[in-house]
Design goal:
Blueprint: H1 2-17, H2 22-29, H3 33-41, H4 50-60, H5 68-75, H6 83-96, H7 99-109, H8 116-128, H9 132-145, H10 152-165, H11 170-184, H12 189-205, H13 209-236, H14 249-266, H15 270-280, H16 291-314, H17 321-330, H18 335-349, H19 354-359, H20 368-373, H21 380-400, H22 404-421, H23 424-436, H24 443-459
């Protein structure tokens, strides 16, 4: 009880320093005299709630989290954890970044592993209220201490960590995917759908086509199965409650086919890619469509049109260039991926696209503000990955035009972005490119290259 009494002593000292008694401090803080008496003089003393502790802190004019290290003992009054105090205290510590207190409380809770369920509930509360980073310490605790390998909460914890970690860093994404993969199949259906979608996206961005294709196939099959089950439930039960998925069910189904088509496209199998486009071009036959799902159906129609034009350009059919350019003007979200296709094709088939590059030149500014202004439905990681490719292929384009300084500028931009996201596929192209044309580089370009090389080795 020593630390408990120390906390109470601090409160008593604070009241005395203010020149108050229990009654006057009660009026100041809003806590009545009787409660103060029970907290400080009761036998045994009445436990202090977190709300009371924070009320006292504000009355003293102390910073948030004052005496939290001593408050831990209140959470284990009589040596046992009290959930009504432990749970709000840990959530508040997470909000204030008090990891020292969190670790101390978790260490004591884990003396009995039955408390893992409470730790998981705290993590879920934080995650679902938008405090994603704050939740990770609790999910990691569940992962390390859950004794049942097939438990749902273990799978959900791995899923939440995976979702929180994936971003623009390719190396980090790969590690996160490898860690999460064994648990995806153990998730409840609504999380499993999203887990498969995210795994497909990660491996696609890493250009690991075989693995990405595997997860796209799983996503197609599993979403089709969920769709059939949901349809049966809707027909069978009058009070039908749909599965609460993060995205409309049609999104998962269509995205699987979209991903497969793009993978075939990336590998040059254009006829196969065309077959997959038809699978998602018109999903209006889906029977479970609310307003949000209808928007997804329309979006897939747009993707189908874009990808049909995309394939024509990739096959060197330049008669489609004007139509594709007009399409991109009307659909700015598609400009980056479309521009990448046009530049790659121009390099492959030897035609020039100066007017198109000029038309979309504002999209070539590597700033987050530009991306956000376009209100893209692609995430930042996808956009950044696309930009690194665009810059590299622009470098190749300007070499063809013998505009070496501009070519080197774009190669350095590509190198800079690829180092940032740790895209080895790109920066291992940029380095030999620069070395090949170093004789044409300016002093400023040489200095930038050397600085980028140092940064790359630091981040290795």
């Amino acid at each position: 009880m020593e630390t408990t009494m120390t906390l109470r002593s601090e409160i008593e000292n604070g009241i005395a320093e203010l020149g108050m008694n229990f009654s006057s401090f009660g009026e100041l803080s809003g806590i009545n005299r009787g409660i103060f008496s029970a907290i400080l003089n009761g036998s045994p003393p009445k436990p202090i709630s977190l709300n009371q502790m924070e009320t006292i802190t504000r009355a003293f004019g102390k910073p948030e989290g004052w005496m939290f290290d001593l408050y831990i003992e209140e959470c284990f009054y009589d040596g046992k954890p009290n959930r009504r105090r432990v749970e709000p205290f840990l959530i508040r510590c997470a909000e204030l970044g008090r990891k020292d207190c969190i670790r101390e409380v978790l260490s004591r809770l884990l003396e009995d592993l039955k408390h893992v369920s409470m730790i998981f509930d705290i993590a879920e509360t934080l995650f679902t209220t938008g405090k994603v980073q704050e939740s990770l310490i609790f999910y990691e605790c569940v992962v390390e201490n859950e004794k049942y390998h097939h438990s749902e909460r273990l799978a959900v914890s791995h899923y939440r960590i995976f979702r929180a970690v994936i971003g623009a860093d390719n190396e980090q994404n790969l590690r996160a995917a490898l860690r999460f993969e064994p648990f995806c199949g153990k998730l409840p259906d609504h999380h499993r759908l999203d887990g498969l979608l995210q795994l497909t996206t990660v491996y696609y961005s890493l250009e690991r086509w075989k693995i990405a294709g595997h997860y796209a196939d799983e996503l197609i099959a599993f979403s089709a199965n969920v769709y059939e089950n949901e349809n049966m439930k809707r027909i069978k039960y009058k009070k039908y409650e749909p599965l609460l998925t993060e995205r409309p069910l049609v999104k998962y189904y269509g995205q699987g086919y979209l991903a497969k088509g793009i993978m075939f496209e990336a590998q040059g199998e254009y006829q196969q890619a065309k077959l997959y486009i038809e699978k998602y071009a018109n999903l209006s036959w889906f029977e479970i469509l609310d307003d949000q799902a209808e928007k997804e159906v329309e979006k897939f129609k747009l993707f189908a049109k874009a990808n049909r034009l995309n394939l024509e350009i990739l096959m060197g059919n330049t008669e489609y260039l004007d139509e594709y350019s007009e399409f991109l003007e009307k659909n700015p979200q598609e400009v980056l991926s479309g521009l990448l296709t046009i530049i790659k094709s121009s390099n492959q088939y030897g035609f020039f696209i100066d007017s198109i590059i000029l038309k979309f030149s504002t999209y070539l500014i590597d700033t987050d503000q530009v991306f956000q202004a376009k209100e893209s439905y692609y995430d930042q990681a996808t956009i950044t990955h696309t930009m690194s490719n665009i810059f590299y292929h622009l470098a190749e384009y300007y070499i063809r035009k013998e505009n070496y300084v501009t070519a080197i500028d774009y190669s350095l931009q590509s190198l800079q972005v690829s180092i940032k996201i740790r895209n080895k596929n790109i920066f291992m192209k940029c380095i030999p490119f620069f070395e090949e044309f170093r004789n044409f580089s300016t002093t400023a370009q040489n200095q930038k290259y050397e600085a980028l090389m140092k940064e790359m080795y630091r981040n290795a």
